[in-house]
Amino acid sequence: MNRLLYLISRILVGTTFIFSGFVKAVDPLGSAIKFSDYLSAFHMEGLISLALPAAFIVAALEFITGLHLLIGIRLKTFSWMAIIFMAIFTPLTLYAAISNPVTDCGCFGDALKLTNWQTFFKNLVISLPAIHLFYFRKTFTDNIKWAFKWMITIFFTGGILGISQFSYQHLPLLDFRPFKIGNNITEGMSIPEDAEQAVYETTFLLEKDGVQKVFTAADYPYNDSTWVFISNETKVINKGYEPPIHDFVLTDADGVDQAANILNSDTPVLLVISSQISKGTWSDGIEKKIIDIKNTLFEKGMQTWFLTSSPDDDITKFEFDGDGGFNYLGADETMLKTIIRSNPGLVLLQKGNVIAKWHFNDLPEASAFTNPISYSLKEFNEKHNRIIIFMLIFVSVLILSLLLKRNKSI
Q: What's the CA dihedral at 224, 227, 228, 232 to 10 degrees?
């Protein structure tokens, strides 16, 4: 019976850690943004520069811990790692659930959104098999040669770090966000007719004869004019349905929202996105490449918009220095970082459909935009095929490791 419980514990903890580490690894910049949110909430802004390295390290440690537990090698070492993770993050998520410094823990990246309370209860559940693994860590051993175990550790450590580095230097290997290629932004903003509505409760603080009392709308003393109004407060009881995309607002210099015009355009529209111009990478001719692409599209009768949350002074300086001739639109910084993990980055839309995205390290030549749609689809298919091949290799090695493993006990 204990052997079965130990196997179940390994599977539960191992798969959870593997999934958590992998979805962080494919979007290290997203994890860094979430870590920065936590540091800001805890008034530790001085450590924000460590958020990106932490994103790499945490993703790799989670993935490798889960992998070793699932395969069943180095159980003593990695049961320690699992229990350390749970000992740190379970109290932390309890505090987050109570104080709510951020609305989403980010423990599963954008692949699976959990509230802070859901995350805490998830950690409680996973802590039980993790404790079981830790308690019996010396009971079960493997008979695998140390060289094979080192090969597994080195291969998958290098692999998961390579995934993180690739996703950081280009775009996430897998995109779980609502702005991923193939999604329609207009559909992502829509609310179904049968969607759950938000529920609010308003309370009123009134005073009478020096005594203050709180009333709701149901028991408000409408017919007693002797009560004097002091203040009121509205609380959200149930947020109701919130569409995946709810902040796609793009305002021009006159304060007019141009989002609808862009999403309804019959011709392709190119978005140049820089969440903060002053923090963007504009060296190595990147700005010139973007300007050339913009000019090529202009000759074809297609629009290009520059989206940023930068202050006017930064926009003026950027335009003066580069003479790009862009049409600028203001947007929320978090939303821009969600659209694309690159500063700057390019996004091609048609009728609200996300056709393509480019990291500044992968900008195409301007000549490719003489027919942007066909070029983008061809590029997407090639990238998709490369991802499939890579994932097949990665999973094949994992399966091979499981098959080659010979465990005496389980």
A: -90
